[in-house]
Structure formats: C-alpha cells, structure tokens
Amino acid sequence: xxxxxxxxxxxxxxxxxxxQTAMTQRIHGLEQKLQVTLFIRTRQGMQLTSEGxxxxxxxxxxxxxxxxxxxxxxxAGANYIQRVRISGPSSIMIxxxxxxxxxxxxxxxxxYITSDINDTDDTIKELRSGVSQFSVMSPNKVTRDxxxxxxxxxxxxxxxxxxxxxxxxxxxxxxxxxxxxxxxDKTTLNYLKQFDLxxxxxxxxxxVNRTExxxxxxxxxxxxxxxxxxxxxPFLENGDLIALNSGKTFENPLSLAWxxxxxxxxxxxxxxxxxT
Length: 276
What we know:
This protein is 44% helix and 23% strand. It is of the alpha/beta class. It folds into three domains: 2-74, Arc Repressor Mutant, subunit A; 82-152 and 254-274, Periplasmic binding protein-like II (D-Maltodextrin-Binding Protein, domain 2, 3-Layer(aba) Sandwich); 154-253, 3-Layer(aba) Sandwich (D-Maltodextrin-Binding Protein, domain 2).
C-alpha cells in the first residue's frame, strides 16, 4: 500500500520506516507466494498491475474492517454486549454485590453481568480458568498471578432461634449443635475461638450447604451458628432469630481478585469502583 501511494520503493519504504532492500524483498516474496506480478517499473514510478490493483482493493477493505473492529473494541461496553461473571460467597453476593451491580447495569445498558453465587473454593479455579472475571475470596487465597484489592470485611453474628431467648449462652453452647455450611467451613469455630468460647461448645456439627437452608434451621431451633450481619438483619428484625454473645461480631477479611488488564475498559473500572 505504501509503494502504491508513494510511487517508488524508496519513498514507500521510508513511509513505513523500513529499508529499501527490506521493502523490495517483501514485494518479491509476496509476488512469489501469489505467483503474480504486482508492480511494473515505469518512468512515472512503480505502477500496479491489474493483479496488484485487486490486492490493493483487498488491503483497503481489510484496513477499513480492522479500523472498525478496533473502534468497536475501544468502545466496548457502550454499543456492544459485554459479558462479565462475578463469583463469590452467597452472603456478600446477595447483600452487597448484586444490589450494587444492578445499579451499574443501568449506567452500562450493554453490560451483561452473571452473578455466580458460590460458597466453595471453586471461585478461585473459575477466575484462573477465565470463566469468571472477578472473584471474592479470602486474602490468603490471592496468588501472584492475580490483581486484588481489600474490600469491606464480612461481620458475623452468632445467632439462634428466638425460642432460646431466655437461655444462658453457655447452656446453649454446651447442649446444642453448631450448624455450618460444610466441614471446611470454620467460621463458627473461629468466632467461638476469638471470644474464648470454644471450650463450652460441642465438637460435633451439622452441615447444610445453602445459606437460606442454614438460616431456616437456625430459626427452627436445630442448632446455632454464624450469619453475616447483612444476611441476618431481616430475621433479627422480625424476631425469628436472636443474636447471642451480646451481638459481638467476628470479622472475616475479603479480597476482590481479577486478572490484570493493561488498558481496562470503562465498565471494568466501574465494577472495580463499585465493589468495595
């Protein structure tokens, strides 16, 4: 394209900042590959053959298409559907992240966000594999290949059914069972340890791997355990649950992790700013 525009190999080479020899080699290599002659030398300079003119038209089409594609990429989030997946535990996703990103989707109408509620360590695998673009996890799970920022920690309350309102805390710990998400869930145990209550609690636990079901079991009096303040709030307000240990809270630190992008689009930056 440069030679066709400037009419000489020398001028064309200078326009794209390569040597005249390199330009000549490129032309000869392309002619050999296509088995055609692209230029002929005349007193007016390098003239395109009919085959050369066809190739030039093709190059212009490709260049125009490339420019359009690049523009579309740069305007991502404004005119074209952009899909983003955010993974995280149910407590923070339901109470904090989903309400905020719903507002964000009003600002970016073509932004389609999938909220992956996941209370297992699979969120890390999904981030690494590229299935999710953002993942909420414990800071100690963040690895060197990830970018991250610390977000507001979850505050956990020790809760139980309202039927036990008149009972002493130590009596509940000694006679009732802990209910946790699964065997790897140590949040209730960590809460008890922080307030020096572990020695009063039973070691055997019940498990249910749905936060909604966990809460229902607390309300029905099958045991006690921890819920985040946000998730527990409506149940405390309507009296189905009560907070034990004088409402003292246990903080669980959290990070938002993602893979680095040298030039992140605006919707990406907006998500980072929204999740705090």
